[in-house]
Specification:
By secondary structure, the chain is mainly α. It contains 2 helices and no strands. It has a domain at 14-60. It has helices spanning 14-34, 37-62. Helix 1 packs antiparallel against helix 2.
């Protein structure tokens, strides 16, 4: 589940996205050590939002045409 209070993150550069993920990961572990499960849940949702955007960008790099059909790649006839 993505965090509902995070706005549009499309304009973040890749390095800014990685920096956000790194910062939130550190904060998550601090909250976990303190035993604050509610804060962990909120940070976890924010992390998921940023990681989903990162994965979306990686998928676009791997498959720039958006072609997910691989029927033309393997001929088993």
């Amino acid at each position: 589940m993505e965090h509902p209070l995070i706005g549009n993150i499309d304009n973040l550069k890749d390095d800014e996205l990685m920096q956000k993920i790194s910062e939130l990961t550190k904060k998550y572990f601090i909250a976990q050590r303190m035993g604050n499960q509610d804060l962990c849940n909120q940070i976890g949702m924010a992390l998921e939002t940023y990681k989903n955007k990162q994965q979306e960008r990686l998928n676009k790099l791997r498959n720039p045409n958006g072609d997910t059909d691989h029927d033309d790649k393997i001929d088993i006839s």
